[in-house]
Amino acid sequence: MVDSDLPSSLGVGTGAAGPHAVEAFALLGSETRLSILLALWDEYDPHTNDNTVPFSRIFERVDHDDRGNVSYHLTKLKGQFVQQHTERGGYELRETGLKLVRAVIAGAGVQDVELPPTEIDQLCPFCESPTVISYRDGVLFHTCTECDGTGQAQTDTEGFLSAVPFDPAGLADRTPEEIRAASTVAALRQVQSLFDGLCPACSGPVESRLECCPDHDPSGDCEHCGRRFAVWAQFQCRICKNHSTTSPKSLVLFHPAVISFYDDHDVSTRIRADDSESVRRVFGLMDDHEMELASRDPPRVVVRVVREETVCLTFDETADVVDVYR
To answer: What's the confidence (pLDDT) of residue 30?
Structure first.
């Protein structure tokens, strides 16, 4: 967890986002400007060092009858999203422009896509009943058809097992099992980056902490915390508020000692978006990890990974690994 003050140049004290964000949104309030960005994207080749597009080609692609109007809007985009190369005689997208167009291409905030509850070939880790996935509001839900899942403390979804922010483009040309596998890869990458102290959304610093229920009922959905597990790790970006909540039982999969431990026992911890079996295997590993609350004040959690031998990791109150022994 980072304790130092944020650079004053970010303007955090001026509001939730700051004047630069307001200016950026204002620049996008034009269909012509968005068309220009998409025209530059169409010409973009990630495998070349020169993606300069001459104005004449931008004008043709925008399909506008007023060259002066297109030039005006292109000038407004310069600096923030577009870079002009006078010596090359053209324009190209800056990294900020690329990120914006990729968000549009992915469907974030553009497409209203839904997937009704669809059964997949994966049983509930708690009751071994069938599970289903569904998609709404840019989130892929995984739920059990019979039990309460992990608990409904922070969701109104019955049988809740997980909820993963997932772009609509991720649903294209994939079976339900493949969608589930791809969303799991996305979720684990997000958590790993946050666990490593880097926000995957904005590259900002991350605050992390362990939370534990002081009077946890381990028999099921605890009436005090509403969760199945007594301990969980919480992460939040200090800049963009990107966040995630997960169990330390899953965090150990990112530690080199555990990866090496499993490798020594010929078990792969790798998960792939095109391999549904890898999802079942890795979730089986996480389910088998043993977790013990060693201390409440300050919080200390020990997670054990057992094969013929055992490796143990201890997490402190900041959800950081402070001890490893095997």
So the answer is: 81
Phi-psi region of 151 (alpha: psi -120 to 50; beta: other; left: phi over 0): left
Q: Are 127 and 146 in contact (CB under 8 A)?
A: yes
> What is the pLDDT, as a whole number, of residue 218?
63
Domain assignment present for residue 37? The answer is: yes
Q: Which two tokens stand for residue 206?
A: 């991350």
What is the sign of the dihedral through the CA atoms of 250, 255, 257 and 262?
positive
Q: Give pairs for 24-29: CB < 8 Å, separation 24+.
A: 24/80, 24/96, 27/76, 27/77, 27/80, 27/81, 28/100
DSSP string, 23-63: HHHHHT--HHHHHHHHHHHHT--TT-S---B-HHHHHHHHT
Please state, in angstroms and rounded to a whole number, the distance separating the CA atoms of residues 21 and 10.
Answer: 10
User: What span, in angstroms and rounded, lies between the C-alpha atoms of 210 and 313?
Assistant: 14
End-to-end Cα, the chain, rounded Å: 26
Percent of the chain with pLDDT over 70: 84
273 versus 8: the higher-pLDDT residue is 273
Domain that holds residue 102: 17-106
CATH code for the domain of 41? 1.10.10.10
Query: Per-residue pLDDT tens for 202-232?
Result: 899 999 999 887 776 666 566 656 666 778 9
Of 43, 76, 106, which residue sits at a domain end?
Answer: 106
Helix (H) or strand (E) holding 311: strand 310-315
Please identify, among 106, 131, 156, the residue that sits at the C-terminal boundary of a domain: 106
Instruction: Give the count of domains, the chain.
Output: 2
Residues contacting residue 211 through CB under 8 Å, at least 6 positions apart: 231, 232, 233, 234, 299
Interval 226-244 mean pLDDT: 84
pLDDT of residue 177: 92
